[in-house]
Amino acid sequence: MKKYNAMIGASVLFYGLLALLLGVLLLHRQREQGQFYKVEINRILAEIESPEDIETIDLALYGNVRAVSYLSAAEQERGVVEAFYQGENGRKSMIYPLFTGKNVEGWLRFDYEENTSVSRTFFLAEGALLLSGLFLLTVLFYLRGQLIKPFHRMQAMTYELSKGNLQGEIKEEKSRYFGRFLWGIGELRDALYVSRKRELELQKEKKLLLLSLSHDIKTPLNMIKLYGKALEDGIYATDAKRQKVYRQIGEKADQIENYVGEILKASREDILHIEVEQGEFYIKDVMERVERVYREKCELRKCSFTMGKVANRLFRGDENRLFEVFENIFENAFKYGDGRRIELTFYEEEYCQLIRVFNTGEPVTEKEFVHLFDSFFRGENTRGQQGNGLGLYICREIMNRMGGEIFAEREEDGMAFVVVLPCVI
Known about the structure:
The protein is α+β, with helices and mostly antiparallel strands. The chain contains 10 helices and 10 strands. A 5-stranded mixed sheet has the order 5-7-8-10-9, with helices on one face. The relative contact order is 0.06.
């Protein structure tokens, strides 16, 4: 706020100095041109040697002198003399003697008008400068009251949100420019509050589940230990009894495996809360958006980008979420491919639109291939690359929520991901 106030002060000072400088320049010019009528009178005097010469003077050649009158020295009538010295109404005049040799033959009266164009220019320029300065100050003070001050009052909101303070109330601002901003901040705070509450509930449920499953695992584990100890001590002498024990150990191991599966399932459920808005969109719009973004990125990476022809068909789902799927696929191609080629092809199977994205590079191993869409899974080729192993998991969740599917294909010279969209009949 101090810097903004200093800017207002600097603007006032600048306009003041500019008005002063302009005024000095115009006044100086007015002084120079204001006495120009004297120059014209001297020029006319140089042309007049006798009263008859007055008639030959072309006053149209002069800008200030409007008339030249003559009064003979022999004239004695009072009214004529008074009228000569009074001059014409609305004009200024100067009187000079007309000499013939050393004798005064008469008097010349020069009626003139001073040049007022400089004065008009002065007032117009100063007036325009004053109005523009007032307009600028009005705008600056308006911005100060309607934008700068409200923004300074609201700047603490985001800081409190960054610290995790979600309980404070967002006060309404009178400024009409921040209505949607405050609404967005309020929505963000509510979303963060719900997300935190949900996260705490999930953590509590998962901890209780893990504790319960851990307790349940102990029973079959202890039984396996007991059977193992008995077999080691030779308690079961016959083959029939040992076979029975072996079956019991297998059953207990299956129970433990089921419990471990439950633990893994619990650890993967609700990792991300992915919302999909079910609407309608044209696939060509999405693919043009993909091409517009990633053709340029491929060119910057010197990577060949080819895209087949796609029919402009209508589909049901979330256009933005579908674009997010292709974002994850392309980013994986940039990270783990060799940067030589990326191809998009389109085809249809069983009333579904299939979009295949292929990138050259080293394919994943068969062992890793089955886990590509698992959460937090990262293959051997991800070493040194940033990531959390959630990209393809998110893709699968989005496509499932849209009623579609995504799967991967291993090729000799790269990897392909196929996005499946059910057609709208």
